[in-house]
C-alpha cells in the first residue's frame, strides 16, 4: 500500500500579547507610563535633594565660618638657644619653612584637604612690642603695640599702592640692624604711617633693629583665610588696657616683613614663634565625610597625626583648630532637620504607593471580563500573571528610567545609587503589585460575583484585625513622637516619621465604617421627596463597590501630608517673624550709639515724617541699673535695664507686636508730672512693669532705685516675660514722664511699607551716629543656609505632590466607574431623563464621597497637627543665624488653614467638574451607542 501523502502543517498565526495589548489601549498605557515617570522622579529626586542640601550645607558652614576658627594652625616656639646661630637662622628662613609647609600639606589625612592658595607660613612675634615713634597716634597717651610678621607670598595676595615691596639686602642674620616691611592701607591710615617711615624695635643685644616701611599694600581678598586667619595683619584695632578704673585704649597693628628677614626677629624681645596656617578646602567634601573628617581633626590636634606632624615640623609644635566645633554645629542642624523632612518623604511615599495601587485596580476592573474568559478557557494563573508582568514591564521600566534621568538632571551633585534605588523601588512595586492585583482575583473561575455594596458590606474578621493593628501602630507612633520628639539622639525613627500617615489611615478606616450610617439616613429622607434624581444618586452612592475605600485612604493621607507640610512652613515663617520682631522691637528701630546716646529732636521729627511711618514710640534705655538688695538672701551685682516709655504709645506697640502686652493704666504714674530737670519727691512711688526675675528681686513693697535718669521709688505693677525695647531677661519699664533726666535714646517705629532709605537719611541728621534696623531685613537674614532652604524646598514639593496626588485619586476613582455611569445615563435617558437631570445625578452621586474625603481631610489634618505639634520643634529649621537667632527657645508646629482648606476644596471642585464633563460627554455620544447589544461596557 502506498504511503499516504502528508501535507505540511503551518504554524497557527499568533499575535504577540504585549504588542496587541499596547495597540488596543495606547492611551491607558501612556497615562500609566506618565504616572510611573512622575512617581519615579519624586522617589529618585528626594534622596538626591537631601544629599545636595546636606553637602552644600557642610561646605557653607566650613566656607563661611570665620577663618580664625576654620584654619588649622601648626605653631611652635623659635629654635632653641642651644643650637648654633647658623642653624637657628636657617630654621626660620623662607625656604626651610616652605619645605615644611609642603610636607604638611602632602601628609594631611583624608578627607582633610588644604586650600594651598590661602595657606601661609612664617615667623611672628607672639608678644607685641611697644613703639615710641612720635608720629603714632595715642588716643589715651599709650604707645601702640606692634606685631612683626614674615608671612609668605605677600605679593600674591596684595596690590602695591605706595612705595615698593619690602625686600632683603643680602643675607639677614641675628646681627642685621635694618630690615624692610610693608603695611596695609587700613594700618597706614589708622597709625599715620607713610612710606619711608622707620620703627625702632628693641633687641636682646641692646642695639635696636630698624624696620623701614617701604610700601603700603591693599589686600586682594580681605575676606580670604590668608588675611582673616589673623585679622591684625589686615586691620589694626583699639584694645583696652586691663584696669580697675576707666578703660584706656591703645592701638595694636602688624608690620609685614619679607620671609627671609625672619632671622632678624630672633634677636627681638617679642618672643618669635614659627607657624604654618592650613586653610581648609571644603569644595569636595560631602556629608558622608563628616565622621572621618571629625576623626582626622581629632588626630591632628592630639593623636597619631600630630606625632607624624611633629616629625616634620619639630617636636614642640602644636596643632589647633575649631573645625570640630563647626562640625558639631553642622551635625546639630542636620539632626534637627532630617527627621522632619523624613515625615514628608514617608507621607508622600505612602500616597504614591496607594495611587499606584489605585491605578492597578482601575486596570484590573477594566480587564476583569477578559481575564475571566481566559481562565474559563483553561488559562493558567501563572501564564496570565507572566503576560501581565511583561505587559507592565514594557511601560514601567522605560518610564522609571526616564524619571531617574529627569531627577539626575534636575538635582545637582549628589550620590547616584540612592536615586537608582528609589526609582527601582517604584518600578518593582508597579511590576509586582499590578499583575498580582489583576490576576489574583481570578484564582477560582466563577461566572458572576455577588454585589459588593458599600452600605451592605460587612467587615470580615481579617479586616478588623488589620484595622486594630494599624490603630495600635498609630497610637504608639504618636505617643513616642509626643514624648521624645523628632530631635532624638537615636536618629530618625521611621515609625515616628510615619505617624501622620498612620493617623490618616486609621481615620480613613473609621470614616469608611461610619460612612454608611449617614448615607442610610439621607436615603430614607430623600425617599419621601418628589423626584427621582436625589434618590437615585444616593442609592448609586450606597451601591458603590466596597473596594472604593482605597480612594478615600489616598485622599486622606494626601490631604494630611499636605496639611502637615504646609504647617511646617507656616511654623517656620511664624518663628522667623517672631524672632525678627523680637530682634528689632518694631517694624523699624533707630538707636543712638549702644542705645545710650540721645537722639536729637530734628532726627525724631524727620523719622516721624518718613514715608509709611504710622506711629513712633520714644524710648529711653539705660543698661546696668543696680537693683536693691533682695529681701531674703545675699546681695549680688546683678543689674537690670531701665526703659522709660510713654505708657499709651508703648502699650499699643506691645499689642501690635504681641510682645509683653499690658494695659497702659497699670504703668501710668499718678499725680502731677515732674518738671524737667527737677528732683522728684522722695515719697513718690512709681508703678513699674518688670520681668519675672526683677519682680522676684523687688518684691511687693516700694523699693529705692538709683539711675542716671533719676533716683526714685518703684513698686511692681505687673510682670511680662518680654518687652519690645530690649531683649534682656531683666528689665524695668517706667513712665518716662516721671524721670528726672528725660531723653530719647531709641525710636521704635510702626507702619506699612516703611522707606528704609528715608529712615537712614533721617538717622544721618547732623553729626549723630544713629543706626537703623528694619524688621524686614532682620527677617530676611534667617534664610541663608543651604540646609534651611533645601528643607523648605522639599516641604513645598511635598505640599504640591500631596495636593496633586489627592486630585489624581479623585480622578482615578471616578474613572473606575465611568463606563457604568455612562451606561446608566443612557438607559435613564430612554426613560425621559433630561441632560440637566443627568448632570445633577452624576454630581450628587459623586458628592458624598468627595465631601467625606474633604471634610475628613480637614479634621484629620487638624487633629494630626494638634497631636504631633508637642513633639516637633522647628527652631533649628527656622533659625540658624541672624541677630535674633537665639531669642526663641522653641518654635512649635502650627496649623496652616490654607494648607488644610485649599486641597480639600480642590477635591470637591474636581469631583464636580469631572461629573459635569462626563454627563456632557455621555449626552453627545447618544443612547444607541451606549446600549449596543453585547457591548461589555
Summarize the structure.
The chain has 937 residues and is of the alpha+beta class.
Element layout with pairings:
Elements: H1 17-24, H2 26-64, H3 67-70, E1 72-77, H4 85-92, H5 94-106, E2 120-125, E3 129-130, E4 145-149, H6 154-157, E5 158-163, E6 178-184, H7 185-191, E7 198-201, E8 209-219, H8 225-228, E9 237-241, E10 248-256, H9 262-265, E11 272-278, H10 290-302, H11 304-313, E12 318-320, H12 323-366, H13 368-376, H14 381-410, H15 417-439, H16 461-484, H17 494-497, H18 499-514, H19 516-527, H20 533-542, H21 549-584, E13 588-591, H22 601-608, E14 613-626, E15 639-645, H23 647-657, H24 664-667, E16 685-690, H25 692-698, E17 703-707, E18 710-719, E19 731-735, E20 746-751, H26 756-763, E21 771-774, H27 775-780, H28 786-816, H29 818-830, H30 835-868, H31 875-878, H32 897-925, H33 927-930
Parallel strand pairs: 4-10, 6-8, 15-19, 16-18
Antiparallel strand pairs: 1-11, 1-12, 2-11, 3-4, 5-8, 7-8, 9-10, 13-20, 13-21, 14-15, 14-20, 16-19, 17-18
Task: Describe the structure in your own words.
The protein is α+β, with helices and mostly antiparallel strands and 937 residues long. Helices cover 51% and strands 14% of the residues. The chain has 33 helices and 21 strands. The radius of gyration is 39 Å and the shape is flat. The two termini are 59 Å apart.
Low-confidence stretches: 1-5
The total count of helices amounts to 33
Determine the mean pLDDT: 81
Query: In percent terms, what proportion of residues is strand?
Result: 5-15%
The overall strand count is 21
Helix-strand makeup class: alpha+beta
* N- to C-terminal distance: 59 Å
The major beta sheet can be summarized as:
9 strands, mixed
The strands making up the biggest β-sheet line up spatially as 17-18-16-19-15-14-20-13-21
Roughly what percent helix? 40-55%
Shape: flat
Rg (CA only): 39 Å
